[in-house]
Amino acid sequence: MLEQLLDLVRREETPEIQQEITPAGTRFDYQEEGILRITPAADVPGARRLMLSAGIHGNETAPMELLDRLTRAIARDTIRPAGPILIVYGNPPAIRAQRRYIIRDINRLFNQPDAPAGDTEEHRRARIIETRTAEFFEQTPSALHIDMHTAIRESRIPTFALLPGDEETTPDPQLLAMLSHTEIEAVIQQHTPGVTFSSLSHFRHGARAVTLELGKARPFGQNQGVRVEALESLLTALIEHRQHAEKSPHALRLFDVTFEIIRTSDQFVLHVPNDQANFVAYPPNSCLAEDGAHRWMTDEHSRFLIFPNPGVDIGLRAGLVLCEAQEYRPAV
Ligand SMILES: O=C(O)CCC(=O)N[C@@H](CCC(=O)O)C(=O)O
Ligand SMILES: [Zn+2]
C-alpha cells in the first residue's frame, strides 16, 4: 500500500498501516503526506543516503511518474536499496490541483532561517519538509539530493541540471560524471545561495544536491515525450549502490549563472515573448528587463536566458542569465 504514495497524495488519503516490510526486508515508513522513508534490509557500507523529490511544483508530472515507478519497484523487491532513501512529493495540494503552486511557490521558501514564518499552506509544507530533511540527512557527507522538475516553457536545451552554490563553487565532478550518463545535456552552476529545495540540502545539510529539468511540464499520463530512461537507470543503480554502465557518458555543456533578474516592483517589465524558449542567446547590450531606473542588460558573456517569468511575486527571480563555460568531457 505505501508504495502507492503518489496515489495517496492525489486521493488525499492517509494510509491506516504506516509501516510495511517487503519480503526481502526493505522497510517503508510513512512519515507525512507525500513523504516516505525507505530503509534497506541491510545497510551496504559506503551506500549513499538518497533523497529523491518531485512534485515541488504540482503540475510537473513526469518526475512524479518516474518516482512512483521507482517506489513501486522497490516495494516489489525488483530494486533492492543499499542505503536509506527519503521519497518526497513536495506540494500535495498543488499536485491535486495540477498547478505549479496554490498561493506561494514553495521552491522559494527554503533555506531562509530568518524569514517570517508565513501563513500559507506552502509555508507550512516547507517547514515540514525542512524538518524531515534535517532528520534524514543529519549532516551525512555522502548524502545526495536529486530534485526533479519539468519546465514551464520549451527549451533549446530540453534537459538540464542546476547546481546550488556560492561564489566559490565549481561543478561537482562526481555529479557531472553521473549526469553525463543520463539524458541531461547541460549543467548550470549557481553562485548565490538560493531558496530552493536543492539549496536547502546543499547549504543547510552539506549534501550533494541537484535540480533536474527533464523537459516541458505536462499533465499526468501525457509525458510520452519526456525521455527519462537513462536517468531512471542511473537512479536505480544509485539506489542499489552498483556501477552504472547502461548509457555511455556524453559531454555536457556547462553554464554559470552570472545574474538573476528580480521583479522588484509593479513597474517591472520583462522584454521577453511569453512563448520564448529557455536558452535563447542574446547579442551584447540587449535589455532583457527593466524596473524603474534599473535595467538588466546582456554583455558578450552573460547572454543566455532561462526561466523568464514576469508573473513571479515581487522580490522573486524573473529569469536567470547565464554565460557558457568550457564543456565537460567524460574521462575516456
Ligand atoms: O520553467 C520555469 O520557469 C521554472 C522551472 C522550475 O520549476 N525550475 C526550478 C529550478 C529550481 C532551481 O533553481 O534549482 C524553480 O524555478 O523552482
Ligand atoms: Zn519546478
Short account of what is shown:
The chain is an alpha/beta fold. The protein has helices spanning about 5-10, 60-75, 90-95, 120-135, 175-180, 195-205, 230-240, and strands at about 20, 25-30, 35-40, 50-55, 85-90, 145-150, 160-165, 185-190, 210-215, 250-260, 270, 280, 285-290, 295, 305, 315-330.
What report would you give on this structure?
With 332 residues, the protein is an alpha/beta fold. It has 2 domains: 2-240, Zn peptidases (Aminopeptidase), CATH 3.40.630; 259-322, OB fold (Dihydrolipoamide Acetyltransferase, E2P), CATH 2.40.50. 22% of the residues lie in helices and 27% in strands. The protein contains 7 helices and 16 strands. The chain has helices spanning 5-11, 61-75, 92-97, 121-137, 173-179, 197-205, 229-240; strands at 19-21, 27-32, 35-39, 50-54, 85-89, 144-151, 160-163, 186-189, 208-216, 252-262, 269-270, 280-281, 287-291, 294-297, 304-306, 317-328. It has a 13-stranded mixed sheet, with helices on both faces. It has a 3-stranded antiparallel sheet with strand order 11-13-14, with no helix packed on it. Helix 4 runs parallel beside helix 6 (197-205). The radius of gyration is 20 Å and the shape is globular. The chain starts with a helix and ends with a strand. Zinc ion is lined by residues 56-57, 60, 149.
* Secondary structure tally, helices: 7
The CATH superfamily label of the largest domain reads Zn peptidases
Gap from first CA to last CA: 44 Å
Q: What share of the residues lie within helices?
A: 10-25%
Q: What low-confidence regions span 5 or more consecutive residues with pLDDT below 50?
A: none
